[in-house]
Amino acid sequence: MKGRGLFAGLCLASFFVAGKALAQGCAMCGTAVGSDATLAGAFNRGILLLLAGPYLLAGALGGWIVYAYWKRAKEKPRARILPFSPDERGGNVR
To answer: Considering only CA atoms, which of 77, 10, 27, 53 is closest in space to residue 2?
Structure first.
């Protein structure tokens, strides 16, 4: 249990330390585009296009799980059909 807490703490600390380095990437994209409005618009649309794929995949997977759950809940349990035997001993009557 102590090892998990240490691991979680190290992961959390690494997010705070790496945050400043990762935030510089956004500034670099802004300076690379410059003040050209058409290039900035194309760059923004490209980012949205790249983000759409994972969201569509997750949405399709979630929709399939909901559909499968709904379909299974809608089905009624079927009764087990036993052979009819009018004889008390369970044999066939001739």
So the answer is: 10
What's this model's pTM, rounded to 2 decimal places? 0.46
Sequence-separated (6 or more) residues with CB below 8 Å from residue 10: none
Q: How far apart are CA 42 and CA 49, in angstroms?
A: 10
Amino acid at 72: R
Q: Which residue has the higher pLDDT, 26 or 55?
A: 55
Q: Give the number of residues written for the chain.
A: 94
Distances from the Cα of 8 to the Cα of 14, 28, 49, 66, angstroms: 10, 31, 33, 32
- The contacts of residue 40 (CB under 8 Å, 6+ apart) are 33, 34
CB 46 within 8 A of CB 52: no
pLDDT digits (tens, 9 = 90+) for 39-55: 888 888 988 999 999 99
Answer yes or no: is pLDDT of 59 > 90. yes
